[in-house]
Amino acid sequence: MSESFTLDQAREALRRIYGFADFRGRQEDVIARVLAGQSTLAVMPTGAGKSLTYQLPACLLDGTCVVISPLIALMHDQLRAAQANGIRAATLTSVDADWRETLDAFRSGALDLLYVAPERASQPGFRDLLSSAKLALFAVDEAHCVSEWGHDFRPDYRQLRPLMDAFPDVPRLALTATADAHTRADILTQLGIPEEGLVVAGFDRPNIRYAIRPRDALPRQLAQLCADHPGPGIVYAPTRRKVEALAEQLAGATGRPVLPYHAGLPAEERAANQAAFVASEDMVMVATIAFGMGIDKPDVRFVAHAGVPKSIEAYYQETGRAGRDGDPALALMLWGAGDFAQARARLSEVDSARQQGERQRLDALAGLVETAGCRRAVLLRHFGEDPPQTCGNCDNCLDPPEMIDVTQLARKFLSAVYRTGQSFGFGHLQKVLTGTADERVRSKGHENLSVFGIVEGEEAALLQPVARALQVRGSLVQTEHGGLALAGDAKALLTGEAELMICRPPPRQRSRKRRGDATPNPVGDPLFDALRELRRDLAAEAGVPPYVVFHDAALRAMAANRPANLVEMAQIPGVGAKKLEAYGEAFLKAIREN
Ligand code: ADP
Ligand code: ZN
């Protein structure tokens, strides 16, 4: 490299191009390496700002940064955002009509960024094309796709190394949010990046609030969530049928725009629903986990799980789609005892080689659900970090639950399961234990059992939480016909060798109470509302989602500081030179008039 840039120059460019005051997290370390021509693998969580670590050097360095990205939709999102900041960028994909212009621009050195798919990059002619211009950097996005250990192997990524090897002077920057050490090591090898080039950012997403609750009235719980969180949100449901049903119920109950998304919908409908969600400021998407890959929407305010996710990894990835813009966001998991009981029952069908791994996966999830301590700490420890004991931004930290010893009641429940023959569900067992002799109880003769009517008063209210806890920890599993059967440490509980503690269930009222700071946006501020409306108009005019014009944080700062001229406007975080020129006057006018 003939020129060399200092970090101060990079910071100056950060302010000028993006209007951001400073780097976040490990961005600075990654950018320093790239500017020094050193190949790097950056492992950073979603929302940490990975794209900036190649875009900014691409603007400073002489030549073009070639970005390899696996999804066309993702590339076009990135393209839009880069161009909105005045970065000279183009894509070469099967749906682009402007190939000739792009190639001309590339050859004449007029592009900072050229986005291509890995299939393109592995074609023979592509190497010749790259030889025809000056290259600044190779950026390999979603780099875990190169590894068979990752969850998303793409064979074409294996062609990238020979391609990049043909340009030994061009540094490489691989980017991924994938956590595990095995995959990281593999990426380094497969892409020819030295071990010392690994930069791993922390996995914490401090603006996401984690909350985990039993699912006791699903549509009502979700309707409440939608009422408390007016911004865009995603609700993950386990099956297509549940997606359809929930979407309908939520649309009716909340009056908000709600759309479904699952693999059973026609491709055009799926694409249309996804596009509508990306463009919307208030839509709720009810979806199976087929939805989310390749969605780069920064202003998702909540992600709710209507059932237990597959693993902590999956949970982390899915909840990570909330709050990429750094504003407060909520991750709410609504779990059912049956989710665990069924998953544990299915374990016996899994072949023995995989069984242990599957059991650990479930135990880890159960640990997250059952803990009375900090949820974030459980998550971060799972990813090998050493977090503080409390985070101050999860349900348990905000409202520490009281632990109660329910060993006696658990024993009564387990005896009832045992004495009724391990084939009845919760409802029947509850009747037997509380001494409710209905027809079914009498027809089985269960009113004559020693456990009939042994649970009274306050204890009765704890039966359901106790039964849930027993299922989560695997002391009870569900039989084929939906009955409960003893398993795991049930025997140890019955003989007094094990004990059961649970969090005292909060009264319903409290669990529904709104905790105030769900959104930092001012409510009922006419200026803020006017700025949002202007943003909506400008976005529609330009055919981009509103967040491409400005993030909410920028509008909040405008409403609070009321810049009076372009110089003051340039001080607003998120207002770079290009956006100042494109939108500055329009927003100044709105501020003067409101
Ligand atoms: P990732 O690819 O790591 O998921 P993105 O590159 O999409 O994350 O960035 C997430 C958001 O963070 C974007 O909206 C981006 O504008 C914002 N961002 C990135 N870097 C900074 C920074 N230094 N200061 C403020 N906001 C930033
Ligand atoms: Zn916490």
List the helices and strands and how they pair.
Blueprint lengths: L6 H12 L8 H9 L4 E4 L6 H11 L3 E5 L3 H13 L4 E4 L6 H9 L5 E4 L1 H4 L2 H8 L3 E6 L19 H6 L6 E5 L4 H11 L6 E3 L7 E7 L3 H11 L4 E4 L3 H15 L3 E4 L5 H13 L4 E4 L14 E4 L6 H8 L9 E7 L1 H11 L4 H19 L4 H8 L12 H4 L4 E3 L1 H13 L6 H9 L4 H5 L13 H16 L3 E3 L5 E3 L3 H5 L6 E3 L4 H5 L13 H17 L3 H4 L2 H10 L4 H4 L7 H17 L1
Parallel strand pairs: 1-6, 1-7, 2-4, 2-5, 3-4, 5-6, 8-13, 9-11, 9-12, 10-11, 12-13
Antiparallel strand pairs: 14-17, 15-16
Helix pairs in contact: 1-3, 2-3, 10-11, 14-15, 14-21, 15-16, 18-19, 19-21, 24-26, 24-28
Zinc ion binds next to helix 16 and helix 17.
Verbal overview:
By secondary structure, this protein is an alpha/beta fold. It has 4 domains: 3-200, 3-Layer(aba) Sandwich (Rossmann fold), CATH 3.40.50; 208-335 and 371-398, P-loop containing nucleotide triphosphate hydrolases (Rossmann fold, 3-Layer(aba) Sandwich); 403-503, Arc Repressor Mutant, subunit A; 526-593, HRDC domain (DNA polymerase, domain 1). Helix content is 47%, strand content 12%. It has 28 helices and 17 strands. The strands form 4 sheets. A 7-stranded parallel beta sheet has the order 3-4-2-5-6-1-7, sandwiched between helices. Strands 8-13-12-9-11-10 form a 6-stranded parallel beta sheet, sandwiched between helices. The chain has a two-stranded antiparallel ribbon with strand order 14-17. Helix 10 packs across helix 11. It binds adenosine-5'-diphosphate and zinc ion. Adenosine-5'-diphosphate binds at residues 20, 23-24, 27, 44, 46-52, 296, 298, 324-325.
